[in-house]
Amino acid sequence: MASYPLNKSLSLRNSSEIDVVFKNGKKISSNLISLHYLNSGHPKMRIAFSVGKKSHKLASTRNKLKRLMKEAFRLNAIDFIEQHLCCDFVFVYFGSDKVNFNDVEQSMKSLLLSFQTKNLS
After folding, report:
1. Which domains does the chain have, with CATH numbers?
2. Residue 100 Cα to chain centre, angstroms
3. pLDDT tens-digit profile of 7-53?
């Protein structure tokens, strides 16, 4: 199974750029994760992952959920990446319970599929 490599050049780190994605972008949600995206015109796709402090107090829990989201994205993104290379993506985990990788992966798959079908039409 092919996977998509994630590295630092693909990360969206500047808080002002992330705010632009939230303000001007569109949103799609699945049962655990929401996706905010914006066609930025940047030559590379940029990605950010976020977990709220209000629902998950411990930093270790937030970091684990971000790692799970990154891995689920990395394993399932290869099918749709080529068409959306100039978009900025912000994935936000909003579930209140700690979940396992299978739940996060299913949520990410449904989110990526709905993003792909929404942008193809």
Report:
1. 11-114 (3.30.230.10)
2. 17
3. 777 788 888 989 999 999 999 999 999 999 998 777 788 899 999 99
